[in-house]
Amino acid sequence: MSSASGTKNSASKPASTRAKPANKAEATADWVDGRLGIYSLAKANLRKIFPDHWSFMLGEICLYSFIIIILTGVYLTLFFKPSMAETVYHGTYLPLNGIRMSEAYASTVNISFEVRGGLLIRQIHHWAALVFVAAMFVHMMRVFFTGAFRKPREINWLFGFLLLCLGFFDGFFGYSLPDDLLSGTGIRFMEGAILAVPLVGTYIQMFLFGGQFPGTDIIPRFFTIHVLLIPGIMLGLLVAHLILVFYHKHTQWAGPGKTEKNVVGMPLMPVYMAKAGGFFFLVFGIIAVMSAVATINPVWAYGPYRPDQVSTDAQPDWYMGFAEGLIRFMPGWEVSVWGGHTLNLGVFIPLMIFPLVLVAIAVWPFIESWVTGDKREHHILDRPRNAPVRTAFGAAWIALYLVLLVGGGNDLFATHLHMSINTITYAVRVGFFVVPVLTFIVTKRWCLGLQRRDKDKVLHGRESGIIKRLPHGEFIEVHTPLAQKDLHTLTAHEQPQPLELPAETDENGVARKAGVIAKTRVKLSEGFYGEGNQIAKPTTEEYHEITSGHGHH
Amino acid sequence: MSHDMSENLPEAHGASHGTDVVSHDDPFADPGLPAHEPRRTDIDERAAKRAERQVSLLFVVSMLATIGFIASYASIDADKLVYIFPLGKVSALNFALGMTLGVALFCIGAGAVHWARTLMSDHELPAERHPIEADDDVRNDVIEQFKTGAAESGFGRRKMIRNTLIGSMALVPLSGVVLLRDLGPLPEQKLAHTGWDKAKPSQPIRLVNMNTDTAMKPEDIIQGSLTFAKPEGLEESAEDFQQQIAKDALMLIRIAPENIKDSESRDKGFEGILAYSKICTHVGCPISLYEQQTHHALCPCHQSTFDLADGARVIFGPAGHPLPQLKITTDEEGFLVATGDFDEPVGPSYWERPR
Q: What transmembrane ranges does the database entry give (chain A) (predicted)?
């Protein structure tokens, strides 16, 4: 690193004012910098600070499983034949010998039995896809419940949401490709859903399938969508997502030394390169072991797709389970409109609720910032209890999702728990409306209870477990006061005030004339932050007042 | 939790007693970053050496596992099965490759993380954040530049250029839309008819048992059984077999005629033999579960349940209308035949479906 030797020679070369590189590596870096400007880029990022918390690695799992999916997916395309041309199977898997099937199905069976390691890569691909979607869900929940979506990160929240939705669909297209009995049934379901779209349903169906179901075009078309179109869009969104994470710098939890104006943690090089880089190998290793010990999607057992055959327990992959639930619990409403046209509400309504369920959580950041009227940047995370309405909404959303998942697996619940499938379905119909509401109420009360406990802890300290007898005979438990860092952590959060206040101080005539939207906003704001919707955090006065009686408790 | 009542007054907050852990005037103030606490490996060179050996060991295990992966690939047959507790019989090659690859990858990761946690510096450092928003000078400067650029282009002033540009940009994507036309045919009446359409009273089509591939006589269909059928002449080797069977598939049941509640349905059948479309009217799954006592048929996909003794009325689940029934009779040789198509389209409903 010494520049003493370098400066001597460079003086004689007027072409470059740069010191002579100390070694080959520096020389290479100089060469690259002269063309790409890597030094300026690295200056800002090489020692970039990342805060440390276990929940911040959930997004990493998404990233790494996505990379694993791409690596294994490229390998699979070398052997998979996306064709619905008919063939008769003569391979090493004897139970299918002599059976007619599509090239797609036959090549999937070959990947599983004849290509050495093919089964492993297929299973890694599928397991990684399940992990990918699951990790995106949990990552999204982390961001939601901690309020990490607030300004300036709303757009990145939307990028993440789009990645989740695209992940759903690419998963669906992916498991449809083998053209086995189960996945073909899934495509048939999709066809039925498309037909339920008013006016244009039959046209979309004919254009998508290249004719009547199933035709011979759908697998090749899904293949292009699955390996090129959607992954291409996802890759773009992913890069944008990561650039924004770097640009915004990571959020952090409240704590001593942590403010809205700084980020406290350890540098990218070396700690996070080692930790995050190592974590990629951990995720990959665990998924590889899962694929070694746990069979996933054994397409050879299902047989090739035939439109007149089906198996029981037909289930989509778990992330599509809530859509399956919607379609299963919906009553079969079919109405006649416009002189003899059929409107299949029994399928069309679930088809519309499906995106609405997803959009409900996607638009939350914008609803919250509108209700709050907060235009500031937020980099310190909220503890979920300190945002009771947000937390309750998120919990209600998860509850709705789970109710629908039960609905989607109603046949499994019925057979495994020996219950009536009719009862389960009716219960899901009721639960769809009731469970989210109950969850909202319970979660909100729970958050408020936890806020009270925090307040108690700040004012009275921790229960020490030591019982003391006072001179006059009274027994008390000694409370240990909290250290200042804990007091700070527990009281660092803000408590916004409802918007109602300025509206009231305005003259009554003007304020009353506010439109429905403004009134709703004030109402919502009251519901978020009004009386009884948050527990006022302890004040310095309260603290001094209580602690001044030290030694008596 | 008792405290001295005499001090429990609003005025008491000014009197701060100095014996608390918190000596600050503002007890909730940020005390700043806590001091770094050294780890064992920071102060004990032997512990550091031990950690170094552990990290290296993990990397060595990874190398060995990769060698094991290559050895497994070369030496284990793809169709060899082994018994492994508690998994049962599994593919030996898949298990060996997966485990060795998993261990090789996991150990690299574990080594790297262990290295970072024990030997790399764990000093927490603060970095400043800067607001995302540009300051007003930059903002005004940019808006000024944009206005200059816009003015120089004349986009706002030369309205004819602007309008024709917008027009051409709006039209050009139409070419792309038009190109999609050949993705598939128009729906026309394709969904309204099935392969049974070719049957005429003069040219009946026999019902062929799906499993035995033979025509059936009424006595072949016994009460309580469920038989799947297709039109005669539709062979599995036919190019459009999948497309045809998706609409033509039948299920035959036999119910004592007096137990058939729907008289129209009884008339369409033959001596209590009823031929219903096998394709569910919900989203098109083939219905395959039949309860002979109740004459209920259940679709295993979404549990739509049809009462086959009552014109396949929907009695449970999300299906919106009954299963279409094919009118059947027998030909002169006594085989079951159809003399025409279903009265209504089979399968899931759609906008143009008459109702």
A: 56-80, 124-145, 157-177, 189-210, 222-247, 276-297, 345-367, 387-406, 426-443
Residue B18 near residue A478 (C-beta atoms within 8 A): no
pLDDT digits (tens, 9 = 90+) for B115-158: 999 999 999 999 999 999 999 999 999 999 999 999 999 998 99
Mean pLDDT of A88-117: 96
CATH 3.30.70.260 fits B194-338, yes or no: no
Read off the pLDDT band of A10 (50, 70, 90).
Answer: very low
Task: Name the band, by pLDDT with cuts 50, 70 and 90, for residue A514.
Answer: low
As a whole number of Å, the CA-based R_g of chain B is: 40
- How are beta strands B250-254 and B226-231 bridged, if at all? antiparallel
* Closest chain B residue by Cα to residue A484: B22
Reported as a single tens digit per residue, the pLDDT across B211-270 is 999 999 999 999 989 999 999 999 999 999 999 999 999 999 999 999 999 999 999 999
Band (B3; pLDDT cuts 50, 70, 90): very low
Indicate the domain borders of chain B: 40-118, 194-338
Query: Alpha-carbon distance A75 to B236, whole Å?
Result: 33
Place of tokens 């989203």: B283
Residues of B in contact with A195 (CB under 8 A): 191, 348-351
A421: chain B residues, CB-CB within 8 Å:
303
Contact call for residues A263 and A379 (beta carbons, < 8 A): yes
A209–chain B nearest CA distance, Å: 7
| Cα–Cα distance, A20 to A8 (Å, whole number) | 8
Chain A CB contacts of B17 under 8 Å are 547-548, 550
Q: Residue B334 has what DSSP assignment? A: S
What 3-state class would DSSP assign to B165? helix
Q: How far from A22 is each of A3, A15, A42, A136, A433, CA to CA, in Å?
A: 8, 18, 19, 45, 70
Q: Is residue A119 in a domain? A: no
* From A169-178, A533-542, B199-208, the region with the lowest mean pLDDT: A533-542
Distances (CA, A) of A467 to A327, A471, A477, A478, B98: 60, 13, 4, 6, 57
Strands (DSSP E) along A161-208, which ranges? none
pLDDT digits (tens, 9 = 90+) for A337-358: 988 899 999 999 999 999 999 9
Has residue A493 been placed in a domain? Answer: yes
Contacts of A307 in chain B (CB under 8 A): 242, 245-246, 249, 279, 284, 286
- ipTM given for this complex: 0.91
Lowest mean pLDDT among A148-162, A284-298, A451-465, B3-17: B3-17
* Largest Cα span, chain A: 95
Three-state DSSP state, B94 = helix
3-state SS assignment for residue A312: coil
CB A78 within 8 A of CB A121: no
Rounded to 10°, the helix A118-145/A58-77 angle is 150
Q: What's the CA gap between B214 and B235, in Å, rounded?
A: 12
Per-window interface: A 246-265 vs B, CB < 8 A: 247-249, 256-265
The answer as to whether A522 is a domain residue is: yes
Count of domains observed in chain A = 2
A533 found inside a domain: yes
Listed in sequence order, the DSSP H helices in chain B are 40-43, 45-75, 92-118, 136-153, 159-171, 173-179, 241-248, 263-268
Percent of chain A scored above 70 by pLDDT? 93
Give the structural domain span for A16: 4-45
Evaluate if pTM is beyond 0.90: yes
β pairing state of B336-338 and B296-298: unpaired
Q: How far apart are CA A291 and CA A127, in angstroms?
A: 7
> Would you say A381 and A251 are in contact if contact means Cβ atoms under 8 Å apart?
yes
Contact B99 A207 (CB under 8 A): no
Are A388 and A444 in contact by the 8 Å Cβ rule? The answer is yes
